[in-house]
Design brief:
The complex is a heterodimer of chains A (about 300) and B (about 425).
Chain A (H helix, E strand, L loop, with lengths): L15 H18 L13 E6 L5 H12 L3 E5 L12 H10 L4 E6 L4 H8 L3 E7 L5 H13 L8 E5 L6 H12 L3 E5 L15 E3 L2 H5 L4 E4 L15 H8 L3 H4 L7 E3 L12 H4 L6 H20 L3
Parallel strand pairs in A: 1-2, 1-3, 3-4, 5-6, 5-8, 6-7, 8-9
Helix pairs in contact in A: 1-5, 1-11, 2-11, 3-4, 5-6, 5-11
Chain B lengths: L2 E10 L3 E10 L2 E6 L9 E4 L4 E4 L1 E6 L12 H10 L2 E6 L10 H14 L3 E6 L13 H7 L3 E3 L8 H12 L5 E3 L12 E2 L2 H6 L3 E2 L1 H18 L3 E3 L5 H12 L4 E5 L1 H5 L21 H13 L4 E2 L8 H4 L16 H11 L4 H16 L14 E11 L18 E11 L2 E5 H5 L1
Parallel strand pairs in B: 1-4, 1-5, 6-7, 7-8, 8-9, 9-10, 10-13, 11-12, 13-14, 14-15
Antiparallel strand pairs in B: 1-2, 2-3, 5-16, 16-17, 17-18
The chains are: A alpha/beta (about 300), B alpha/beta (about 425).
Chain lengths: ~300, ~425
């Protein structure tokens, strides 16, 4: 079995079988990352280009590490400082990179739809590493992997996604995948941060955190973009933290075996209390570790290598 | 030189609807009826099986000259107009420089005259530079030939300025046209707000951003007694408010664009920048409301909001690409689809493309009455064709209807008694 598309642009069109294939393939790469020599030769001679139009440390590093552990050649390209300034379009930039025989282009871009546009224009495989508020499929997959690693089954799993859902690509990717896998997904945040019509994607909307957390097995916190204060989305960080911040007391409302996730970077004391970040329920660092294995799996499957 | 149009189905909305010949001489309609006395040497145009209509009048086009001639010039825009059956077009003032003074208006009229295709009627700016602050010299603009005033695309947000503009315009009996959009509510938005924008992760503009301005403008029209014309209304709420305003006898008119009664926000999926325009494509419910508004007369006019943009601009990301699509060369079949669907009678469709818009702006156009300017569009109502943007006369190709199989095609366009477009010659 293999993936249907040459690209990984979003989780919305992926089948359950494709998602499972990516997660199962990641298991064997997880094992590789635990070895002393953390490298396999499956992508030797292949070129992966990280094309990042937005500053990112962890996602780019994670992709770089994943590609290197598969023995691919990796180029990091941050056009924000070069050709974008010269007015080159995304497609022209990518075609230049393609002309240098890149096999896989990993794209992070501030515009929703950028990865889709790129994939139409180049023959290389395109992996969406986050496009605007749209999707961040590899983050969604590594979140699924982390849940599954804890022995939880997706069918009937109660998941609360908390915070600025409207502006979150992580939320969208997780919603698509979790709903598809049979989970019961709740989104919670101030009404100003819940986008129009989200319930049509199969989630339940809550405005009160305590109510939303009751009985959930997974809590996914979203990063609050502090600069959004002043856009009339919430009055103060103080009030946001009081209403939507995850505290130890609130974690008690959830299932006793609950796990707490966060895509990072964390605003300690804003959306999540420091003691929750460091608690036994927290799988935040597991997410980071699993990110490399899951991205190895994706790069491997997309390269068509065997 | 006289032109004798024979054997066609003549529709002159509100005046005549039946088989007749039309005789044109010296730029005017000379006679309509059977067995006309035709002067020797008249050119004969056989219109058997075709519709003979008063040339279409588009109250809302962007011809980009001066300033953005790479998108469209007055010459190329006028060529697109006559190819689409439009013999008169009204050009929005968002050129560079803005058409906020007599010199620009005169320049545009000069370019139109040189092109010698469609009649071009400039629309002047409401405020200097369309900045929404100080009134433009509306008296001068009117005198130079502007037929309406508008800050289209940059709606006047300050309600006091809008009130003053409406009051001032009374002295010149000039309609005030507004693109209804609350810029704060719509800030950053690039498509209709709803489940599709949520799924695509694109910032939305709620229909309320249009509705609140329609409501404001109607209130100001009531206060001032101005002739208010609402550009491209696209929401259920707008249609409802216009209907209510008309029922109270206010001088409010409204237009709708073919795309707003033909396709929905679903067309945006795949980040299709050819489906990006402002106001944005709305929901199926809104599309139905626009059709209902056209049917019951709430919406007087069909206008295209012809907004050419270069390919490289539309190939940017969805959020970065400019708003707007070209419309002149597809308006006829999309409007006639409403006739097929039973939304409009054939005569009502012609009225909304021709007679009604002329009336709204007070243009002596849109009729085949004896003595009227000989602006005539001859249409094959049943001809099927496929929309191919590479064949457009417009310089730009930005249409969501590429590849559509449509019905109804312009065969001949006559402006001022002169044949300016002939489909057969193009195909020859």
């Amino acid at each position: 079995m293999s993936l249907k598309s040459k690209d990984l642009l979003s989780l919305a069109p992926l089948s359950v079988d494709e998602i499972k294939l990516i997660l199962e393939t990641a298991d064997s790469f997880k094992e590789v990352t635990g070895r002393e020599i953390k490298k396999v030769p499956v992508l030797r001679g292949r070129t992966v280009v990280n094309l990042f139009f937005e500053p990112s440390t962890r996602t780019r590093t994670s992709f770089e590490l994943a590609a290197k552990r598969l023995s691919a050649d990796v180029i990091n390209f941050s056009p924000s400082s070069s050709s974008v300034v010269k007015g080159e379009t995304l497609l022209d930039t990518a075609r230049n990179i393609e002309a240098m025989q890149a096999d896989i282009i990993v794209l992070r871009h501030p515009s929703a739809g950028a990865a889709e546009a790129l994939a139409l224009g180049v023959k290389s495989s395109v992996i969406n590493a986050g496009d605007g508020w749209h999707e961040h499929p590899t983050q969604g997959l590594l979140d699924l992997y982390t849940i599954r690693e804890r022995g939880m089954s997706f069918e009937g799993l109660k998941v609360a996604i908390v915070g600025d859902v409207a502006h979150s690509r992580v939320a969208r990717s997780n919603i698509h995948a979790l709903v598809k896998l049979g989970a019961e997904v709740r989104v919670v945040g101030p009404p100003t941060m819940i986008p129009a019509g989200i319930e049509k994607l199969g989630v339940r909307v809550y405005y009160h955190l305590d109510e939303a957390l009751r009985g959930v097995q997974v809590i996914m916190m979203l990063r609050l973009q502090l600069e959004r204060q002043g856009k009339a989305l919430f009055p103060t960080i103080r009030e946001y933290a009081r209403l939507y911040g995850l505290t130890s007391e609130r974690v008690q409302l959830a299932d006793p075996k609950v796990i707490v996730m966060h895509p990072g970077p964390i605003n300690r004391g804003v959306e999540i209390a420091p003691e929750v970040v460091d608690s036994l329920s927290s799988v935040i660092l597991d997410q980071v570790a699993n990110g490399v294995a899951v991205r190895m799996s994706i790069l491997y499957l997309m390269s068509g290598a065997s | 030189m006289a032109i004798h149009i024979t054997g066609g189905h003549v529709i002159d909305p509100g005046r005549f609807n039946g088989m007749a010949d039309v005789l044109i001489d010296e730029g005017r309609i000379v006679a309509v009826g059977p067995n006309l006395k035709v002067p020797a040497g008249a050119t004969k145009i056989d219109a058997k099986g075709r519709l003979v209509l008063p040339g279409f009048v588009d109250l809302h086009v962007h011809f980009r000259e001066p300033g953005f001639e790479y998108k469209e010039s007055i010459q190329s825009g006028a060529a697109a107009a006559v190819a689409g059956g439009f013999t008169s077009v009204c050009c929005m003032p968002n050129t560079n420089p803005v058409n906020d003074n007599q010199a620009i208006t005169e320049f545009m009229l000069g370019r139109a005259k040189a092109a010698g295709l469609a009649n071009v009627f400039p629309i002047g700016a409401i405020t200097k530079g369309s900045e929404g602050k100080e009134l433009a010299e509306i008296g001068d603009l009117r005198r130079a030939g502007c037929v309406a005033i508008s800050d289209d695309g940059k709606p006047v947000m300050n309600s006091l300025v809008m009130r003053r503009a409406m009051e001032y315009a009374l002295a010149f009996d000039v309609p005030v046209v507004d693109h209804c959009e609350d810029l704060h509510l719509a800030e950053g938005g690039c498509m209709n707000e709803g489940v599709v924008s949520t799924e695509l992760g694109l910032p939305g503009m709620p229909s309320a951003a249009e509705d609140v301005m329609v409501g404001r403008n109607i209130a100001l029209a009531e206060l001032t007694g101005a002739r208010l014309h609402l550009a491209h209304i696209s929401t259920e709420g707008s249609a409802r408010m216009v209907r209510e305003a008309k029922s109270r006898g206010l001088q409010v008119t409204a237009e709708a664009c073919p795309h707003h009664f033909t396709i929905t926000e679903e067309t945006v999926r795949g980040y299709n920048t050819y489906a990006k325009m402002n106001p944005p494509l709305r929901t199926g419910r809104d599309v139905q409301a626009i059709k209902d508004g056209l049917r019951d007369g709430t919406i007087d006019v069909i206008a295209t909001d012809h907004a050419p943009h270069a390919t490289q601009e539309k190939h940017l990301g969805f959020a970065e690409a400019p708003f707007g699509i070209v419309g002149l060369e597809t308006a006829l079949p999309l409007t006639f689809a409403l006739v097929e669907e039973g939304v409009l009678s054939l005569e009502a469709a012609v009225d909304k493309l021709s007679t009604a818009p002329a009336k709204v702006f007070g243009l002596a156009k849109g009729t085949l009455a004896v003595g009227a300017d000989a602006d005539v569009t001859i249409v094959d109502q049943h001809e099927q064709w496929e929309v191919d943007p590479t064949k457009f006369f417009s310089k730009s190709r930005n249409t969501p209807f590429a590849g559509w199989k449509v019905k109804g095609r312009v065969r001949v366009t006559i402006v001022g008694g002169k044949v300016v477009f002939e489909a057969d010659r193009m195909e020859g």
